[in-house]
Amino acid sequence: MTSLVEIDQETFGVDVALAYATFDNLAGRPVYARAAAFLHPDAARCLARACELAAALGYRIRIYDAFRPREAHDQLWAVRPDPEFVADPAQGSDHSRGVAIDLTLIDQDGRPLDMGTAFDAFEQSSYHGSTDISQQAQRNRFTLLGIMTAAGWRHNPNEWWHYQLPDARSYPLLSDAEANTGLA
């Protein structure tokens, strides 16, 4: 059994707003039994560093998704079988390894910075390098990119909100039972 770290407000200073524990996601229903975020200890260390860097700039991190059990990922693939935005379960999602995270930056009042699109907006304007968004949104994306890469993460070019560890594929895929999180 792999031991994942729970990512919470008290320990990490983050705002946890897991989209897949609500009805407001691409499945249109919760795919997690409870709204708790988990990461592999290696990823949790990188997140802690990202939180420090964000705080130095006057921001906090809001988490939309972290560890995603294989069972939950299969549900998302069933709704949106598009490998450009949802990893094919045959290869496995880095979320299902506990080493990927979906997030944004929020200000001190808890308002998300303008990133040009919403989380999980599966369109080309969600690409990291999109210039079809405002200059402010571009700056905000580059701020997030700088924080996350300085903390040891690698970005997904198709999703401004998605980051994973550089060696993500070296970690095993985990079911909910293997991770012991009670999410699926």
Automatic annotation (TrEMBL):
Gene: ddpX
The keyword Plastid belongs to this UniProt entry's keyword annotation: no
Assigned EC number: 3.4.13.22
Stored SUPFAM superfamilies: Hedgehog/DD-peptidase
Alphabetized GO MF terms: D-Ala-D-Ala dipeptidase activity
Keyword check for Amino-acid biosynthesis: no
Residues flagged as site, Transition state stabilizer: R68
First-tier enzyme category under EC: hydrolase
Cofactor comment text: Binds 1 zinc ion per subunit.
Protein name stated in the entry: D-alanyl-D-alanine dipeptidase
Family per record: Belongs to the peptidase M15D family.
Family matches, as InterPro entries: A_A_dipeptidase, Zn_M74/Hedgehog-like
